[in-house]
Amino acid sequence: MFDVGFWEMMLVGIVALLAFGPERLPRVARETALWVRKARSMVASVKQDIDHELQLYELQEALRREKKALSSFDLEEPPKRSLNTVPEHREHKDPEPDGQANNQAGGR
Q1: Where are the alpha helices (DSSP H) in the chain?
Q2: For residue 78, what pLDDT is reported?
Q3: What integer pLDDT is reported at residue 74 of this predicted model?
Q4: Which residue, among 38, 13, 37, 39, has the nearest Cα to 25 in the 3D structure?
């Protein structure tokens, strides 16, 4: 995050020693470390929450796409053409059932 070298840290340490004194410097360093640890923990927690929300959003979008794709299919209507069926040839008439043929002949 920060590109801080040895000499920069040494300068910060000397300024802190002059500002706080040798008695208070260890306590200030501990409190500073505590606050930095809490800040890092909060940032990690927020990052984890954001990642979770992004994953949830991506799943919801995928679900919407799938629903849209499935809604274009009409399951009530039979398919217009099946690859497994053989086309029927209707060159000849189907014979009439026996009952209808006898009725017509007997009624004359």
Answers
A1: 6-71, 98-106
A2: 63
A3: 63
A4: 13
| Environment class of 16 (CB within 10 Å of its CB; exposed 0-12, middle 13-18, buried 19+) | middle
Q: Please return the burial class of 25, using the count of CB atoms within 10 Å of its CB with bins 0-12, 13-18 and 19+.
A: middle
Which residue from 34, 28, 31 is spatially nearest to 13, judged by alpha carbons?
A: 28
Say how far apart CA 72 and CA 74 lie, in whole Å: 7
Query: What φ, ψ does residue 27 adopt, rounded to 5°?
Result: -65, -45
Query: What residue type is 4 in one-letter code?
Result: V
pLDDT in tens, 9-46: 899 889 998 999 999 999 999 999 999 999 999 999 99
Place of tokens 């629903």: 67
Q: Given pLDDT bands bounded at 50, 70 and 90, which one contains residue 54?
A: very high
Nearest to 13 by CA among 3, 22, 35: 22
